[in-house]
Design brief:
Layout lengths: L1 E6 L16 E2 L2 E2 H11 L4 E7 L3 H7 L4 E6 L5 H8 L8 E6 L7 H10 L4 E7 L8 E4 L5 E5 L6 H4 L3 E10 H9 L14 H8 L4 E4 L13 H21 L3 E2 L5 E9 L4 E2 L3 E9 L4 E2 L4 E7 L4 E2 L4 E7 L4 E2 L4 E2 L3 E3 L4 E9 L2 E2 L4 E9 L1 E3 L4 E2 L4 E3 L9 E3 L4 E2 L4 E3 L2 E3 L4 E2 L4 E2 L8 E2 L21
Parallel strand pairs: 1-4, 1-6, 4-5, 7-11, 12-14, 13-15, 14-16, 15-17, 16-18, 17-19, 18-20, 19-21, 19-22, 20-23, 21-23, 22-24, 23-25, 24-26, 25-27, 26-29, 27-30, 28-31, 29-32, 30-33, 31-34, 33-35
Antiparallel strand pairs: 2-3, 6-10, 7-10, 8-9
The structure holds uridine-diphosphate-N-acetylglucosamine (UD1) and calcium ion (CA).
The site of uridine-diphosphate-N-acetylglucosamine has 27 residues, from strand 1, helix 3 and strand 10.
Length: about 450
Amino acid sequence: MNIVILAAGQGKRMHSNLPKVLHPLAGKALVAHVIDTARSLQPQKLCVVYGHGGDAVRSAFDAADLSWALQSPQLGTGHAVQQALPHLTGDGTTLVLYGDVPLIQAETLRRLVLVAQHGLAILTVELADPTGYGRIVRDVAGSVVRIVEQKDASEDERRIREVNTGIMAMPTSCLSEWLGRLSNTNAQNEYYLTDIVGMAVVAGLPVRTSHPQHEWEVLGVNSKMQLAELERIAQRCTAERLMEQGVRLADPARIDVRGQLACGRDVFIDVNCVFEGSVLLDEAVEVGPNCVLKNARIGAGTRLAAFTHIEDAVVGPDGVIGPFARLRPGTELAEGVHIGNFVEIKKSRIAAHSKANHLAYIGDAIIGSRVNVGAGTITCNYDGVNKFQTVIEDDAFIGSDTQLVAPVTVGRGATLGAGTTLTKDAPPNTLTISRAKQVSLAGWKRPVKKAEK
Ligand code: UD1
Ligand code: CA
């Protein structure tokens, strides 16, 4: 089997500098959805027809199993498929997909290809409002006779509600012959792929229709409005799949998964959370409202409180993170770690049962077990040019408002007094304090305002 993906159209109505098929849906380019679905059918040849100026499309997806056919200028869907012909194997079936119809399901395509084994197969749907689509014209016996485009259709034909979704499959050998015979004498002066239907009928080849399981599978994207509608449909599907697997969602309409989200048993996700890239939530993880997680692994039983932001990080089991915590790339938290509000962590490892509960910056640090990081603690990891590491060993206690000027090590069991600016290593099991001794001056008076002269 060959698969041809038509993606040369301009997408004028998107009003964007980005080629239409590169606009993201559920975090992935429109055409990438189609390419991935096409791949799952394991075609022998997979060819994308791209447009002039669409080099961005080509460079975004170049892969060994894809071939690329440039269509310039764009003279219609038939002309587009013609450009792909040299890239196809001559026998078997060719399936034509649209790069801007991203939600088409593999199962629907499998059924269409089966129907095409003995002729031409068209994926059609009945629409309440068929305006704009090519109509499926049938004879009195109900056999398909041809497809007529909206702009070429008569009054009667425009009343037909069965439309061409654009997705078709046919024997490749016939395709090349028919495409050579297309003409552009029609209302749009285009070479219509749909004209091959009439040719198949004349040649006596059976023409059959097949239908998608869901109408949304064949919805196309021509505008930002339609893009947003499809996004909601895609998100709804993901939410349903998660719930079927046992995930509890506070509101399936208020979750956005822009990538892969894998969940263990008894996971709960509150409203307005965004998951990007690859995210794994282990058993019984609870995600509070308004959290953003990108490329993250969260251990079993961990609770992420509201407004937690996590990117390229690993959180161990039984942790308590947030509200308002930020875990940046390279953060690795072991089990039972507590990270509280307005704590930012970057490229740091924190061992089991350590806590940083309030207002801290921890960057380029290695922190042992059972360490307590006081409020307002800052690792001064950057001298303006280079980054340096801070090491805090097991059972250390870091007093509030401490600055750790890296590179520096706090020994096992050490205590740093509040307000310490640590510039040299702190020995283990010792109190280190850098502030001046507190004094009270008896007899000191507040200044008084001078009388004006
Ligand atoms: C086409 C069908 C119509 C069908 C409708 C479904 C034809 C003649 N008409 O109409 O029967 O109901 O789709 O949406 O086929 N493309 C190219 N090169 C071109 C022209 C188009 O690659 O020269 C691509 C577009 O990027 C798009 C797809 O083909 O992905 C369909 O093009 P579009 O212009 O939307 O086709 P319609 O006129 O809407
Ligand atoms: Ca269209």
